[in-house]
Every structure is written in structure tokens, then in C-alpha cells.
């Protein structure tokens, strides 16, 4: 398990076009504002299709939702943040510590453009790039997940109440369209450091095997070499096919 400050471009697909939720655990380490931990920008709107800041300011389709007056963002403490939206509800909702604190109405028929890039730990100043140190998050983050549905308030509160070390998000299956483990595979830039967040349950590290480079494919030595520390046990299984049953075995017996 690790908390991360990173900048990784990633192209999402069509499942996010009409609904999404973005949730994760964030630890603020800088007192200044305008520190963005998540951003998505398309060719039509490179800067502010989706922006989430660590003190309560968010953007959806270039429209701001400023909730800084409603939250406290202490330094050095984990906080659960989540946003949700759907084409049908036309509501962009911002949740802080499991509670709904703000809603922004979006235009009828407005969909999320699907030709964009995602980044963790900064915002875009040009299409797919243009990062500035002054906007870098500079804190810690953990379990950032992108869901292809508009999560309900009950679902988001359950995620927060479960705590940073819970595995509530695993119950959403394929609805968890981009997993924390997916982001961990992407290219990094800037000052990136992985740390231990102190969770005893480490079974979520096996989620990476659900991603396309591994799932339902024969395990090769090159695959093993590409994985991070703590995976030496896979050496004994080279040649096995990485099925869902295979992954569940490691999640249960090798936490």
C-alpha cells in the first residue's frame, strides 16, 4: 500500500461519458490553496473538464464549485473526498468525509468528452500536459478510484466509514472502471515517492492482476519482473494463467 503524489496521463473510455464518480483518500501537506490532486482535460476543454482541489474547490465542465468555507482541511491528516455526476441527474456532487457539501447543476445533454487525459497530483495548462509546480498537490493520496456510475450518498458514506484500510471498493466489480492499481502502472513524472500508509491488510496489492496486462494471460517472467517489490512469490507460478480464481487465491492466502 502506498500514498502517492504523481502526474500520470491516462485516457478513459466511453463508460465515463454519461456517469462517473471519483473517490479517494487525500492528505494535505501544504497550507496553500489551488493544489489539485485530480484533473481531467479534453481537447475541447484542456483545463477544467474535471478538477478537484484539496481544500474544497472543484470544477465540472469549466464551472466552479467552491466549498472551501464548508470544510476544514488540516495538514497531515487523511480525508475522504468524492465527486459524482451523471447525465441523467445533471448534478455534480462533492462529498467530504462522506457528507454531501455541495452540488453544481450541469447543462442538459452535456456529456464528458472522451478524448482527454487524467492526471493525479496536478492540473493541466495545455492539452495533456503543461504542468506547473505552483499547482502541484504535494501531499499524499491513496486508493484513488474512478467509477463508471454515479455513486449514491449512502455508498460514498459506506466507503468513508469503512476507513482507509477497508476494501469496500472491491464490491463494485467492473463498475470500478479505473482502479488505484491501474494508476500505479502509469508513467510518472515529478517528485514521486511511495510510502506505507500503515494498513495491515495488504491483499489489495493483488488487484493489479485484474488489469489488462495480466488478466487471463499466461504469467511470464517479464510480467513478474515488471511488478513491484513483495511479489517474489509469483516466481513459483510462472506458466500459470492469471484467472480471477488465481487472483482470489493470492488475495486470501497472501495478504
List the helices and strands and how they pair.
Layout (H helix, E strand, L loop, with lengths): L18 E9 L8 E6 L8 E4 L3 E4 L2 E4 L11 E9 L4 E6 L2 E7 L11 E4 L19 E8 L5 H10 L17 H6 L35 H6 L17 H10 L2
Antiparallel strand pairs: 1-6, 1-10, 2-3, 2-9, 3-4, 4-5, 6-7, 7-8
What do you see in this structure?
With 255 residues, the protein is of the alpha+beta class. The chain contains 4 helices and 10 strands. It has helices at residues 153-162, 180-185, 221-226, 244-253, and strands at residues 19-27, 36-41, 50-53, 57-60, 63-66, 78-86, 91-96, 99-105, 117-120, 140-147. Mean pLDDT is 81; it is low at 1-8.
Q: What would a concise description of this structure say?
A:
This protein is of the alpha+beta class. It has four helices and ten strands, in the order ββββββββββαααα. A hairpin with a 4-residue loop joins β6 and β7.
List keywords for this structure.
five-stranded antiparallel sheet; 255 residues
Sheet with the most strands: spatial strand order: 8-7-6-1-10
Derived structural class: alpha+beta
Number of helices: 4
| Quaternary structure annotation | single chain
